[in-house]
Design brief:
Elements lengths: L10 E4 L4 H12 L3 E6 L22 E5 L5 H12 L3 E4 L5 H5 L3 H7 L4 E6 L14 H7 L21 H25 L3 E6 H8 L1 H10 L17 E5 L5 E5 L3 H11 L14 H12 L4 H8 L6 E3 L3 H4 L3 H5 L3 E6 L3 E6 L12 E4 L7 H7 L4 H9 L5
Parallel strand pairs: 1-2, 1-4, 2-3, 4-5, 5-6, 10-12
Antiparallel strand pairs: 7-8, 8-9, 10-11
Helix pairs in contact: 1-6, 2-4, 5-7, 6-7
Length: 389
Amino acid sequence: MSPPAHLTGITVLDLSSVGPAARCTRILADYGASVIKVAPTPRKGSLQIQPPYYAYSGHRGMKRLQVDLKAPEGKAAFLRLAAVADVIVESFRPGVVSRLGIGYDEVRRVNEGIVYCSTSGYGQDGPAAQWAGHDLNYLAVGGYLHCAGRRADGGPALPGATVADSAGGGMHAAIAILAALLRRHVTGKGEYLDVSVAEGVLFFTSLSIDQYLATGERPGPGHDILTGRYACYDVYQARDGKWLAVGAIEAAFYANLCRALGCEQWMPFQTDDARQDEIRAAFRRAFATRDRDEWIAELAPRDTCVAPVYAIDELIDAPQFRSRNVFVEAIHERHGRFRQIGPVMAGIDRSATTYAVPDTDLTDTDELLRGAGMSEYEIEKLRQLGIVA
């Protein structure tokens, strides 16, 4: 018999619909937590973004409740749920949950063990706390964009993924929640977590930031080996127009690459700034003689730190990912069958190949409120008043 999932028995109330908080609860659900998506009732629906049916893995393994948190009866219903929950995750502007009467102080009165996680762009206080923002903004203030490559007009290149939302916010929040749950196991008490996405981005750029703080050097694009200073860490186009990523930082790997490309004359000059244009030109000429996948077949097994730059429609059939059961099948009542990324975090059971994803037009409201101790009469009254749906 397989052991239970890591977070079996942990109940999470998720007040978010998209962004870092939704990334966080996706992680918690994949580790076995019971995640309840708390959304506005239909008449309040314009206040919350409804993501596409396939986004965030289709909210597989989650349940859904709709409640009007601005109504006193709705707030009371939420607090009944909070009283038997372990974690609350919210992503409103700082101060909103307190104004609604469902902030940490209110929840702690009914549940001393609650781990209450607020995710926001810049944190719950400070001069930027009320700024609106999205992924790009947080990457900008955290130095990530400044150190990235440049477009033709000299501006920072846009990232190809929501790095700040996914890791600066979502993983940041999940790690903090897991640490708080471990401490609660010892103390019996919950805590409040103030997750700033922008501060999570600072962690990504900490090598550059700490370099400046310690030495006064000002990192930027092309400043060091990781941001384009040397030819050994760059991307090159193959004969078929596809691209290869080269990350031959270590001298031994760089030497292997030079030999394989017929560029042995450049082996002594890996970090010679005066020769980088020449080395890049030599690498470009060499890579342009063969198709990408021919190069990968030859170079990848030879300790050269070369990998293919996959388009999305290519990576889903990459042998490495297929062999590790990264992609699974999902079944949606209205949209039918489609593929999605399965649970990929370390330690999660990957034996399942098919998942049912819920129809977000439907809810589990009655079941969830009954589980919080509400009677059928109380639930029906809330429904008639339009407080829940």
